[in-house]
Amino acid sequence: MNAVTPALPAPIGLLAELTHRCPLRCPYCSNPLELDRRSAELDTATWQRVLTEAAGLGVLHVHLSGGEPTARQDIVAITRTCAELGLYSNLITSGVAGALDKLDALSDAGLDHVQLSVQAVEAANAERIGGLRNAQPQKFAFAERVTALGLPLTLNAVIHRGNIAEVPALIDLALRLGAKRLEVAHTQYYGWAYVNRAALMPAKADVDRSIRTVEEARERLKGQLVIDLVVPDYYAKYPKACAGGWGRRLMNVTPTGKVLPCHAAETIPGLEFWHVQDRSLGEIWAESPAFRAYRGTDWMQEPCRSCDRREKDWGGCRCQALALAGDAAATDPACSLSPLHGKVQALAIAESALETAPDYQYRTIGGAPRAAMPEGAPV
Amino acid sequence: MSLTADSVPRLPRGVRLRHDTVRNAHVLLAPERTFDLDQNAVAVLSLVDGSRSIRAIAETLAQQYAVDLGVIEPDVIAMLDGLLLKRVLETVPAA
C-alpha cells in the first residue's frame, strides 16, 4: 500500500453503506436514485478487510448505515470487527422490521452508539412520510430496548414541510425516549430529496421558527439533551463544508464497494471512482481521481478562490453546485456570495408557497424517476 | 446540575478515551463527535474510573505535578463540568 503523504489528511470517518435495502421509503433518502441490489453487495470478508484498512489509515468512527444496516445477515459480525479494531461503531437504523431482534447481539458485540430515525412524532404522519404502516410502535419499542441496554441513543429527524410543525414535539419525544442527543436535520436536497424538493421545501417563516425552538430548547435542556441543528441550505448565508471538505475527513463505501468522497458524489458526471475489490482503501483515499478532483482549493473558481472562507466551508457542496449551477466546480449556490443565490432562494420561496404540496415520489429499488426534476424547475 | 469535589465521575457507555496512533494524540470518542484532548485533559480522564471522587483525582494530580490542591481542583471541576454538559460524562449515583 502506498504510504499516505504528509500533506494528505488522514480520514477520520467511514460511512459504510452496507445495503440499500430498507423497509422504509422516505422521499428524502440520501441514497442514489439507482439503488444497488442485494446480489451485488459486498461479502462479509470484504467489509472486514475494508474496516481493517480504515483503522490503519486513521479512521476513528464507523457509521454502519444503508438503507437499513440490520437487513444484512452479518451485521453482528461486522460490528464485532469494529470493536476488535477499536473503531467507534455507530448504527444508523430505522429501528423497524428485524432491527429489534438483532439489537441485543449487537450490544454484546460491542456496538458503541445507536442513531434512530424518526419521521415525525404523530404516528399517522410519520408512517405517511416513511411509507410504512405500523412503523412508529416498532421504533418506540426499539428505542426503549436501546436505553434498557445502556446504549447511548440519538434520535435523528429529517425536517421538511410535512413535519416542521412537530419540532417542539420531537424535542419532547427525544426526552421521553431517553435520548441523549437529537439531530434536527433540515432536508439536504440531493438524491431523492432533490426529486421531491417541491413536496418537501418548508416556508422560511417555519424554518426560522424551528431554529428559534431549537435554540430555546438547547438552553432549557442543558446537560440533559444535546441538540444538533442542520440548517437548510437554500435559506442559508454560507454553505456547509460538505463532508468537512472533499477528501479531507470522510469516505463512503457503497454496498457494491465503490468508494465515494460523499454519498451523492456519483451524481457528478465524469468522476472516476475506484472499488475496494480492486485496490486498498489507502490507495483509493490518496490516489483515486474522484478524491483528487476537488480536494484542497486548487480547483476553485471565483468567488471561492480568493474568499477568506475557502478553507472554512471548502466551497460548499460539489453535488449541489452541479445540480443548481450546472458546474460541479462552481461556488455552491447555497452561498450568499454565489451569483445564483438569489435565484435559489426565490425557488425555495416559490416551492414552499405551493398551496398543496405535490405527492411524494417514494424511494424504491429499481424505481428511479426518469427525470430528476420537473421540467424547467432547476436554476 | 454541576459537579462538586465529592462527585464520582465516569465515562458513560458510548464514550471512550483512545490513543490515536496515526495522529499520535489522545481523543475522546463520543456519539458523532471526537474531542481532541490536551495533556491536562488526558491526565484527568486517565484517572476517571467510576470509583475515584473528583477530590481523589485532584489530590493525585496535585501530588504528580507538585501543585496546590486548591489550584488544581477547580480546574478539574471546570473541565469535567464541560464534558458533563455535553453529555459525554456522568456521575455514579451516591449509594
* Widest beta sheet: strand line-up of chain B: 2-3-4
What's the architecture of chain B in CATH terms? Orthogonal Bundle
Q: Please state roughly what percent of the residues of chain B sit in beta strands, choosing from under 5%, 5-15%, 15-25%, 25-35%, 35-45% or over 45%.
A: 15-25%
Report the order of strands and helices of chain B.
EEEEHHHE
| Major sheet description of chain B | 3 strands, antiparallel
End-to-end CA span of chain B: 18 Å
The span between the termini of chain A is 44 Å
Per CATH, the class of chain B reads: Mainly Alpha
Q: What is the gyration radius of chain B calculated from CA atoms?
A: 13 Å
Protein name (chain B): Pyrroloquinoline quinone biosynthesis protein PqqD
InterPro entries (chain B): PQQD (IPR008792), PqqD_bac (IPR022479), PqqD_sf (IPR041881)
Pathway (chain B): Cofactor biosynthesis; pyrroloquinoline quinone biosynthesis
GO molecular function, one term (chain B): quinone binding
How are the SSEs placed, and which strands pair?
The complex is a heterodimer of chains A (379) and B (95).
Chain A: E1 13-17, H1 44-57, E2 61-65, H2 75-85, E3 88-93, H3 99-108, E4 113-117, H4 123-130, H5 135-148, E5 153-159, H6 167-176, E6 181-186, H7 191-195, H8 197-200, H9 204-220, E7 226-230, E8 250-253, E9 259-260, H10 281-287, H11 289-293, H12 318-325, H13 341-352
Parallel strand pairs in A: 1-2, 1-8, 2-3, 3-4, 4-5, 5-6, 6-7
Antiparallel strand pairs in A: 8-9
Helix pairs in contact in A: 1-2, 3-5
Chain B: E1 9-10, E2 16-20, E3 25-30, E4 33-36, H1 39-45, H2 54-65, H3 69-85, E5 90-91
Antiparallel strand pairs in B: 1-5, 2-3, 3-4
Helix pairs in contact in B: 2-3
Organism (chain A): Methylobacterium platani
EC number (chain A): 1.21.98.4
Function (chain A): Catalyzes the cross-linking of a glutamate residue and a tyrosine residue in the PqqA protein as part of the biosynthesis of pyrroloquinoline quinone (PQQ).
